[in-house]
Structure formats: structure tokens, C-alpha cells
Amino acid sequence: MATCETELTRNAARGDQEAFRQLWEAHHAAAMAAALRFCHQRALAEEITQGAFLLAWRGLPRFQQGCPFRPWLMRILYRHALDLLEKQRMYLQPLSLDMALDAEVLMSASSAIEHIDLQEQVAQREEVHHALAQLNADQRRVIALRYGADLTEMDIAQVLGWPVGTVKSRLNRARERLRVMLNNGER
Amino acid sequence: MNKQDFDKNTQQEPFDLEQCLSTYYGPPLREQPLSASSWQHLRLQLGPQKSAGRRARFHWPLPRTRSRIEAPATIQNAFARIAYEARVPYIPSTLHCQLTLHTHEPEVRSSWPGKCSIQLFLPVNTVTTLGQAELDVLLATGLARSLCARKLAYRLGRLLLAGVALMACIMLALFWMRHVPLPGFSLVIALWAGVMWGWHRQACAIAFRADTLMVLWLGRGHICTGLHALADRSRSPRRRRWGEPSLAERIERVCGTRTETREDALTLVR
Q1: Which value, to the nearest 10 degrees, does the dihedral of the CA atoms of residues B80, B82, B85, B89 take?
Q2: Do the chains contact at B217 and A161, CB–CB below 8 Å?
Q3: B5 in contact with chain A, both atoms CB, cutoff 8 A
Q4: Distance separating alpha carbons of residues B181 and B188, to the nearest angstrom
Q5: Which DSSP string do the residues of A41-93 spell out, in sequence order?
Q6: Residue-wise over B226-247: b if at least 16 C-beta within 10 A, else e?
């Protein structure tokens, strides 16, 4: 499988679209799932996924052959998703009905939170959404990667190209601010 | 209601931020396949693949004198990629290319802070031999310097220096009118020298700061390759110019410093 993927990436880097199609077939569904978890909107998630694959195609000549393709693709996808979310000012938009419904569909995949009332869930999401909008862009990025992509601080540093110390401090500061805002909201 | 019940009601449960954020983003999802038409849509946008190792080849009509031309697709693509890495909006009109017969090595200049444009000067004999790493370093240099130059501290510094220069001019005029002897003029000359020195130091500081930014964007290995290639091309890599550190100095700072090399920077498209 690894050899096959290496072969595919090598051919795709040379311009073989059929090889790239096979890579797309193998990885697009996982990429779409990650994007959807990030933005909770199917149309936007599809745009992010397609954009990430387009960037990957352009970057393939610089891809180090022999390395696994998926982590590389996911780093591109996360960066692209964060850029797009910031560009479209998604956090400033009020939570739409579609987003709420999509979120509910996503939530239903987990059995651990079934007992929570859906209405309460949507209200809580609205509150978190509003709090995230008040963070600065860098803080939102680290929060999204930490909780929306389940990345470690090391991985976040690699995706964003920041030192690990910077990631930690921004994450802590973002958490503190969110804690204050959400705590105040609850009371 | 007894006291214990009252305490229980007034004491709130500890707020669990982790749980709150996890609920907001939801659990990891199963794979979400796209329709087959999505691939067709993507395929239409792919375009030809460009090899990273291959040297850029430009096919321009070579003019007799310096000419300002629209940057070709290869350069625009490289600029777009660097803008993406730098997380700044890509505006094609900010990049201007000029072919020139008068210089022997490619160079880049950032415009005055307000204008936000980057000028790339390419000698006609280098356009067919310019490597990808060299091109990336030139473009990233221009972009990084223009970004650094927009900083408030830099603008205030320039403003201060311009103010001192203006004051020196006024003093010169006054001394001239009042026939003040030599000490007055030497004071003006000292002020001018101070302004020139300050200007040069500030420009060099920005250049070094810009080099640090470039390393963050493109990775140290790639930048070193480009800087060495530019130095090989240059007739005098150790020559300093006013407001511009020499290539040798930049190489020493970027490639010679004991900074941990991030190997993955070479593979990350980001």
C-alpha cells in the first residue's frame, strides 16, 4: 500500500492526473469529514476539501517522496480551512438554522451525549460560537485545531508554523478568555 | 430549606470548558464521500504540473532597454504560493517585473510603505536560468520587507528621521542667511550623517527581520539554497549597499546561525 501510494504521489507530481484521481479517491472522504467537523456546513466543507486537494496538486512536486500522503494533505486542509473560515468571517455570522441542523446530525453520531437535550445543545453551541467570535484570529486557529481536529500542541505548531511555546501560550490565553466569557454567560 | 440545601443551590458546578468545546465541534466523523462529479469539477482546475526541481523557463520577447511587463504565470504562481504561506491576501497587481540590461544580478525592491508594491528586476541574461529557489527568495524578500515596512515602529522611525533631516535643512538655511561660521555648518552635516546612518541601520534591521519571516514561511533549507544560488550569481556577494545588507551577511545570519533546522519544512506545503 505504502509503495503503491509512493508510486501514485510520484506520478502525480509528474503531472499524472489519473494517479492524482486515485489519491483523491483514497483520501477525499476522510478530508471531507475533517472539514465538516471544522465548519459544520456541507457546502463549505466541500469547498475546503476541493481547495485543499488543489493546493496539494500544486505542491506535489515539493512533496518528499516516501512520506505518507495523508498527514501532509491534512496539514494543507487544516491551514486552508482556517484561512477560509477567517476570510469568510464565519465566526461573525450568526449560527444559521442549517448549521444548527447539521450540527445536530453530527452530534447524533455520538452516543455519549444522547441524553443532552437538543435544544440545550443548540443554545450551548450558539453561546460557544459567540465566544469564539470574540477571540482574535490566532486564538481561534489554535482552538479549532485543538478541539476541532484533535491535534496535539506539537502538531498544531507544525500546521501553523509557529514555535510550540507560542502555540501553548496562545492556547492557554484562548482558554482563559473562553472560560471567562462562557462562565459569565452561564451566570 | 435548610442551610445545606441553600449552599448546594448557590454553589455552581465547576465549568468544564473542554467538554463545552468538544460538544461544539462534535465527535470525529465517519468518512464523508463526495459525489463523482466533485472529481470532475476538481480535475478541470488542476492544470499542468510544474516540476520543482526544473529551472523556470520564461519565454519573453527580450527588449532592448528596461521594460516593465506583467509578471509571467510562473512568477505569479510562485508569488501566490508565497503569499499563501505568509497568510496575506494574494493581489497580483502588487508584483511588477522589469527586465533590465543595466544590472547583472536579479534584485527585488519594496516600494514606499504606503504603496505596497514589489518590484522585481531581472537582467535579461538571467531570465532563462533563474532557479525556483532563487525566485522564491527574491519574491519572499520583497513581500517580507513590504510587510515589515508597514509596522508602526518602522513608520514612526522614518518619520522621526525625516523630521530631523527637515530640521537640518531649515538650520542650514538659517545659518546661510545669518552668515553663521563653520561650527553651524558642521552641526548640520553631523545631523545629516546621523540621519543617513539611522536610515541605513533601520533598513538593514528590516532586511534581517524579513529574512527571519522568510525562513518561517518557506523553511531554512529552501531559503539557504536560494541565497547561495543568488550569491553564486552575484559578482560581489560581500558588497553592501546603502540600506541593504550584503548577500554574504544574509547567508551568515540565515544559514550560519545555530537554529534548529525543521526538516519537515521542506516537505510542508502548508
Answers
A1: -50
A2: yes
A3: no
A4: 12
A5: -HHHHHHHHHHHHHHHHHHGGGS-TTS-HHHHHHHHHHHHHHHHHHHTTGGGS
A6: bbbbbbebbeebeeeeeebbbb
Q: What is the Cα–Cα distance from A169 to A50, expressed in whole angstroms?
A: 32
What percentage of chain A has pLDDT greater than the value 90?
A: 19
Domains of chain A: 1-88 (1.10.1740.10)
Average pLDDT over residues B220-230: 85
Give the CA radius of gyration of chain A. 18
Residue A170's pLDDT is 92
Cα separation, A178 vs B228, whole angstroms: 47
Shortest distance, CA A15 to any CA of chain B (angstroms): 5
pTM of the predicted protein model: 0.49
All residues of chain A having their beta carbon less than 8 Å from the beta carbon of residue B51 are 13-14, 61
Residue B174 φ/ψ, nearest 5 degrees: -65, -45
Distance (Å, whole) CA B250 – CA B137: 12
Residues of chain A found within 8 Å of residue B270, distances taken between Cβ atoms? 75-76, 79, 159, 161
Measured in degrees and rounded to the nearest 5, phi and psi for residue B15 equal -75, 125
Q: Compute the radius of gyration of chain B from its Cα atoms.
A: 27
Distance of CA B220 to the CA centre of its chain: 14
A123/chain B closest Cα distance in angstroms: 10
Q: Alpha-carbon distance B110 to B144, whole Å?
A: 9
Q: For residues A111 and A103, what is the distance between their CA atoms, to the nearest angstrom? A: 14
Phi (first) and psi of residue B236, to 5 degrees: -140, 80
Neighbours of B261 (CB within 10 A): 14
Alpha helices by DSSP H, listed for chain B, are 3-10, 17-25, 36-46, 73-86, 132-149, 152-177, 182-218, 220-233, 247-256
A93–chain B nearest CA distance, Å: 16
